[in-house]
Amino acid sequence: MNKSDLITAVADKAGISKKDAEKAVSALLDTVVEKVASGDEIRIVGFGTFERRERKERTGSDPRTGKQIKIAASKVPAFKPGKSFKEAVAGK
């Protein structure tokens, strides 16, 4: 499913126009990106949590040469699904 499919599904499920659904989906995604990028956590009970995680500097190896290289510390987005979401996916 891509963004257009998601917008169509939201419009059908909510009984609203595709244009309104597109505004809502885009606003939601933009807000999640902005808040997580600024270090905030978004917790939606039953769905999951969006957060920013810190990765420490670590050592890796270059697959072409086998030489050890330093991988810089970084910040990455993360999603942890909620209990209801996990159960729905598992078919419980």
Q: Could you give the order of strands across the largest sheet?
A: 1-2-5
Nearest-integer average pLDDT: 95
Helix run count:
3
At CATH level 2, the architecture is Irregular
Q: Compute the gyration radius: what is it? A: 19 Å
CATH class: Few Secondary Structures
Number of strands: 5
**Overall 3D form:** elongated
Strand residue content:
25-35%
- Label the structural class: alpha+beta
Q: Cα distance, first to last residue?
A: 23 Å
Main sheet, how many strands, which sense, barrel?
Answer: 3 strands, antiparallel
Number of spatially distinct domains? 1
Helix content estimate: 40-55%
Order of helices and strands: HHEEEEEH
Task: Tell me the name of the CATH homologous superfamily.
Answer: IHF-like DNA-binding proteins
CATH topology: HU Protein, Chain A
Low-confidence stretches: none
Draw up the topology in text.
Blueprint: H1 3-14, H2 18-37, E1 42-44, E2 48-55, E3 58-61, E4 68-71, E5 74-81, H3 83-90
Antiparallel strand pairs: 1-2, 2-5, 3-4
What features would you describe in this structure?
Helix content is 43%, strand content 29%. It is an alpha+beta fold and 92 residues long. The chain has one domain (3-90): Irregular (HU Protein, Chain A). The strands form two sheets. Strands 1-2-5 form a three-stranded antiparallel sheet. It has a two-stranded antiparallel sheet with strand order 3-4. The radius of gyration is 19 Å and the shape is elongated.
Q: Can you give me a brief rundown of this structure?
A:
The chain is built from three helices and five strands, in the order ααβββββα.
